[in-house]
Amino acid sequence: MKYCSTCGAPVILCIPSGDTRQRHICVNCGAIHYQNPKLVVGAIPVWEDKILLCRRAIEPRRRKWTLPAGFMENHETSAEAAIRETLEEACADVDLDEMFTFIDLPCIDQVHIFYRARLRDANFRPGDESLETALFSETDIPWDDIAFRSTTSTLRHYFEDRRTGHWRFHAIVQHAAAQ
Amino acid sequence: MKYCSTCGAPVILCIPSGDTRQRHICVNCGAIHYQNPKLVVGAIPVWEDKILLCRRAIEPRRRKWTLPAGFMENHETSAEAAIRETLEEACADVDLDEMFTFIDLPCIDQVHIFYRARLRDANFRPGDESLETALFSETDIPWDDIAFRSTTSTLRHYFEDRRTGHWRFHAIVQHAAAQ
């Protein structure tokens, strides 16, 4: 951020009076421009005992596999975001179950959330942001080619809870820079 | 948003190619400025059988009571945000327990999250954004003077779960415009 989105004048980085953190402040109108973490929301779409994954057509992590997920939009709920992203990335309709993982990623200023979900039918195909979509059973998951650590930990918790038969909500912190 | 934060030129509202939503796009450099929901994180600070509430010194809802909470910052976890907000608004130290409520508020483009928390001692006093801080037992909660509906529903779920002795995680959607 170099310019004020309110008046177009330059901004400087400094700590406002009464605050403790550096903010972008406009030298002309004084507007303070706060920056906050973003929510990325996705689904764990299940068909029989298999999980639907998408192979990414875009950077970052092009050609790697991921659960359908993306930035939550204004004016929608997190559940609506999970359903929308699954439709956009895998052209698949899901019914959501409960929120399953909440993952703090302070190193990239994001929070990732995944809902358990049931595919309504076995119709799916790659959306614009996917090269390929496919169902994987636990033994076939391409663990070495998963795009993001939040996807890996969500899948691992999913299979653990499925084994115990006891679905829990998992709040997780991932600190390392590598995602 | 009227000006591009990257180059200072005017922005226009239109739907980018391949997108489905209106975005602010720079007429000069073409930067697309996305706007996304913000996370507000707070705590339910407990001392014996009482809850610590803060009476707001600032708008919105000045003079109304609330749980300590505020916007999550970049580079922190949601748990760190809940601890920081409790310290800032009530000068109180807490140890956090589990995430308790996750509240979608699509009408104001926010998600509110509350953690159950234990006060380390009975030392608390109003921070800069509070007029007053006080402990309330369930029968004394000023229900008609609570600042935000997400606080009311978090407190109601808290007392319900305390009665049953079974602490659950509650994902809630609040649709109405009035908060």
Can you walk me through this structure?
The structure is a homodimer of 179-residue chains. With 179 residues, chain A is of the alpha+beta class. Chain A has two domains: 1-35, Ubiquitin Ligase Nedd4, Chain: W, CATH 2.20.70; 38-173, Nucleoside Triphosphate Pyrophosphohydrolase (Alpha-Beta Complex). Helices cover 16% and strands 36% of the residues of chain A. The first copy, chain A, has two helices and eleven strands, in the order βββββββαβββαβ. Chain A has helices at 78-90, 149-164, and strands at 11-14, 23-26, 32-33, 38-47, 50-56, 65-66, 69-71, 94-105, 110-119, 130-136, 170-173. In chain A, strands 4, 5, 6, 7, 8, 9, 10 and 11 form an eight-stranded mixed β-sheet that branches. In chain A, strand 1 and strand 2 form a beta hairpin. Chain A is elongated and about 60 Å long. The two termini of chain A are 24 Å apart. Chain A binds chain B through residues 1-11, 18, 21, 33-39, 71-80, 98-99, 102, 104, 106-107, 109, 111, 128, 169, 171, 173, and chain B through 1-11, 18, 21, 33-39, 71-80, 98-99, 102, 104, 106-107, 109, 111, 128, 169, 171, 173.
Query: End-to-end distance of chain A, in Å?
Result: 24 Å
The CATH architecture category of the largest domain in chain A equals Alpha-Beta Complex
Biggest sheet character of chain A: 8 strands, mixed
- SSE topology string of chain A: EEEEEEEHEEEHE
Assembly context of the chains: homodimer
Total beta strand runs of chain A:
11
CATH class of the largest domain in chain A: Alpha Beta
How would you sum up the global shape of chain A? Answer: elongated
- Give the CATH topology of the largest domain in chain A: Nucleoside Triphosphate Pyrophosphohydrolase
| Helical content band of chain A | 10-25%
> Of all protein chain pairs, which has the greatest interface, and how many residues does each chain bring to it?
A-B, 42 and 42 residues
Helix-and-strand structural type of chain A:
alpha+beta
CATH homologous superfamily grouping of the largest domain in chain A: Nucleoside Triphosphate Pyrophosphohydrolase
Helical run tally of chain A? 2
Q: What's the number of structural domains of chain A? A: 2
